[in-house]
């Protein structure tokens, strides 16, 4: 299992937002789409950052409600955590753990291919564990 397969299974639609959008608009989009992070791009160009729920909480804790009118660019994470499509799920787990992030931006030759979340990884690992258990049970029953 790799990043490309995860994106293929879940769909490659990636919501992006402009750096000039305000935090209130970003929060509304996160809620409406049921996602925890959005990739920040200028005119659908290469990613320049990621804005997450964590970034929103930090902005509100630092500046209070007035932060909601500030631009995403002022609060996004600029240090993108990226992976290639052929990155294994085990490597993605390690990167997420080491970098303490819940979203990894997947780039294919510099272009945005998708986003893999910790939820995507956990879902696939649970499915894999269940399949392994089922296979082991079938093996034991026939032995």
Describe the fold and architecture:
The chain has 143 residues and is of the alpha/beta class. It has a single domain, classed as CBS-domain (Roll). Helices cover 46% and strands 20% of the residues. It has helices spanning 3-10, 23-33, 53-63, 89-99, 118-142, and strands at 16-17, 37-41, 47-52, 82-83, 103-108, 111-117. Helix 2 (23-33) links the parallel strand 1 (16-17) and strand 2 (37-41). The relative contact order is 0.18. Residues 8-66, 76-133 form the CBS domain. This is Inosine-5-monophosphate dehydrogenase.
CATH topology: CBS-domain
What do we call the CATH homologous superfamily? CBS-domain
The strand count comes to 6
Strand order of the largest sheet: 1-2-3
Structural class: alpha/beta
The total of helices stands at 5
Can you summarize the main beta sheet?
A: 3 strands, mixed
Question: Span between N and C termini?
Answer: 29 Å
Count of discrete structural domains: 1
Rounded to an integer in angstroms, the radius of gyration calculated over CA atoms is 18 Å
